[in-house]
Amino acid sequence: MRCRIGFQLLVIVFFATFGSLGRAESVTGAQRQAASDYLLAVSRNDPQAIANAIHPAELDRLRFGVLQKLREESTRGGNAIRERLFGGAMPLADIERLTSVNFFRAVARRWSPTVRAHESLDGLSATRDGERVHVLVKQRPSKDGGRIETLEVVTLMAYGREWRAALPPEFEALVDDLVSGRQLRAVVAQSGSMTDSPPAAHRSSPQPPERNPSEIVSMLEAAEKALVDGRCDRYYKEFLTPELQRSLAGRTMDSLISSCRRSMASRELLIAALRIVKRTPATIDNGGNRAVYDVTGQGLPFDRYVLERVEGRWYVAE
Known about the structure:
With 318 residues, this protein is an alpha+beta fold. It has helices at 2-18, 29-43, 47-53, 56-75, 80-86, 92-96, 100-108, 169-180, 214-228, 232-238, 242-247, 251-262, 264-278, and strands at 24-25, 120-129, 132-140, 150-159, 162-165, 283-285, 290-294, 304-310, 313-316.
């Protein structure tokens, strides 16, 4: 009885909220399918699938609007918006080459929606709002997902004879916060399993993130200078751990050095990574001989960077 009353109240709130926008209609099969595709993509946290479920015109609008602000900022000599949205390692020229889908995927890394997966979905009501339709749906969980049914509202736009989701308001609000500098929360993600950790006598517990020791800063600056001077061979042969050098021996090492020499973009990426790590707090473990950096959202093609101390000297390990 309580569940039924709660559900009825939610429906009443829905109609009270959207009733002034347009007349309530029944949900068509195409609208229900579009809502289902979008919600399943969000439940899987799959940026590519989410982008495919969103109307292309919405993705184009996002890209055009943000790029305009990035270009205006660049003419003023700034880069704060670019760093907040894409990280300091991604130059504006690379951002401009992104397709609308890849543009959304890059920005969506900062978005963490939560939607439960469903086995089936019922369309309850559709309310028109200009060219958009707000659809209220009820999600039925899979057999192993319990018995709790959830309600979601998905905004749709016509796409030929089909429908696609509009950009979610909460996503647009996040982008607006990042562009304006209102998004000040820092999210630190840590991953890994403790089941295979060595005994405490051999490996100490990780310490909270701390500023880089001076010997790490010196190593990072020396590695950066080697790359700035075009000494790619020195970077790969002097600043990588001996173990990593052995794993890259032969043609792989020669290929990396050659690519670094030929491509300014490759060197700039390596330099950007060193500069980001230099200003990022480190999590020190392995008895003070390993420094792990969370570089998520910095525009790098990886989410962590690892240094190791071997015989008293620091090297790049990952």
